[in-house]
Amino acid sequence: SHKQLVDPKAYYLDRTAMFRSKGDLNAALGEATLAIKAIPDNGLLFAERAHIRFDMIHGKKDKTPEQAKDIRDDAKSAAEAMNAKQPAESAYIVGLLEEELGNTAEAEKHYREAMKLHPANDDIAGKYSVALGRLLLRERTEGAAPVAPVPPPAPDEEKKKKDDKKDDKMGLRLPAAERTIVLHPWSPMIVGAVLAQGQPFEELEDKETLARLNETLKLAEELIASKNDKIKGQGYLLKGSALSKFGKRTEGLKEYTKGLKMIFPGIETKEMEQLVADHPAFQRPDVSATPNPVMAERHFGEGMHFFWSKQYTEAEIQFSQATKYFDKDARYYYYLGLAQLHQRNKKKRDFAIDNFNEGARIEAKMATTNPDAVREVNASLERIQGELRQYLNSYRYNAKLTEPETKDAKDGK
Known about the structure:
Blueprint: H1 2-6, H2 12-22, H3 25-38, H4 43-57, H5 65-80, H6 86-100, H7 104-117, H8 123-136, H9 155-170, H10 176-179, H11 187-196, H12 207-224, H13 229-245, H14 249-263, H15 267-278, H16 293-308, H17 312-325, H18 330-341, H19 346-367, H20 372-380, H21 386-402, H22 407-410
Helix pairs in contact: 2-3, 3-4, 4-5, 4-6, 5-6, 6-7, 7-8, 8-12, 8-13, 12-13, 13-14, 14-15, 16-17, 17-18, 18-19, 19-20, 19-21
C-alpha cells in the first residue's frame, strides 16, 4: 500500500495505461489528475498526463489554444519535477505538439533537444530518434493548412442521406463505426510502391532536403543496431522511406518490408514479404538518377560474353546492371529475360516474362519514332532461333499491336 502511494508505476500508471488501451482518454485523464494530487511533484505523472492530453487532440481539426497550453504546462512541470529523466521527455512531448500544429522547425528543435538530454543507447533514445527521422522525411511546410469549408450537399446526396436513415431504422445498414474498412498496415505501402515502379526519379537539387535525407539514413542505421526488434523495425521503416525519396524505390520497399515484419510479426507479414520478394516488378534494379548509356553498353557486352558461355547467372547480373544505367533499350530486357529463362526455375521464368513484356513495350514505343530501332533489336537477336525466337517474338508482336500508331505510321510514311 505504501509503494502504491509513493511510486506511480505501482498503481496509477498501470491504470492510465489500461484506460488508454481501451480508448477511454477521459477516464485516463481523470486517473492521471488524481495521481498527481496523490503524488505531487512527480515528473512521470506530469509526462503521462501530457501524453494523454496530446492523444486527445491528435489528428483533430478543432484544437484550441487552451488544450495546447495544458500540454505545454504539463511538459514544463515534468521537466521541473524531481526526476532526472523527464527533461528529455518534456522536450519530446513539446516536439509532438509542435509537429501536430504544423510547426516543423520547432518540432525538430525539441526532438533534437530530447536526444541531447538523453544520449543513452536505449529504447527511450530510440523513440526520440524515430520521431526526428520521421519529421526529417516530411515536406517543409510551416503552419497547419486551413480547413476548407464544407460545401452544401447536392440534392442527390440529400436523398442518399434520407435513404441511409431509412436503412438504419430497418437494420439494413451498419453503424458508421462498423462500416470502417480496416486496412492492413502493408496495404497503402504496397499500392504506393507498385504505382511508383517505373516512374522517373527527380534528382534532388535542394541541399537542405538532401542533408535531411542523409541524416535520416544515419538515424535509421543507429536504430537498426538496437537489440529491441520494435526499435530495429522502425529503423528499417525509416531507411526504406528515405531510400524511396532518393529514387531507390525497389531497395526502399525491401527495407520497409523488413521493418514491417519486425513490428508486425506473424504469418501474414511473412507471406507478404515473400510476395514482394517473388514479384517480378520488384526484381529490377533502381534506375540510376543520371543515365549512363556507355556503362550500360559495357555491362551488356559483359553479359553477352557470359550468356553465350552458358553462364546464365553471371549474365543475368550484367544485363540487370545494364538496365540500371539505361532503361530505354529493349535489348537489355530481352537478354535479361533470356538469361533468366535458361536457368529453368519457375520464379526466374516469371521474372523473364516480365522482362520480355517490358522490352517489347520499349521496342514498340521506340519503333513509332525510329524505324531503325526494330532492325537493331533484330540484329542483336539473330543468333536466337527456333522455338525460343518464336516465343520471344510473340511478346514483341503483342506489344506492337497494343502500341498506338503515330501520325506518320497512319499516313504510311
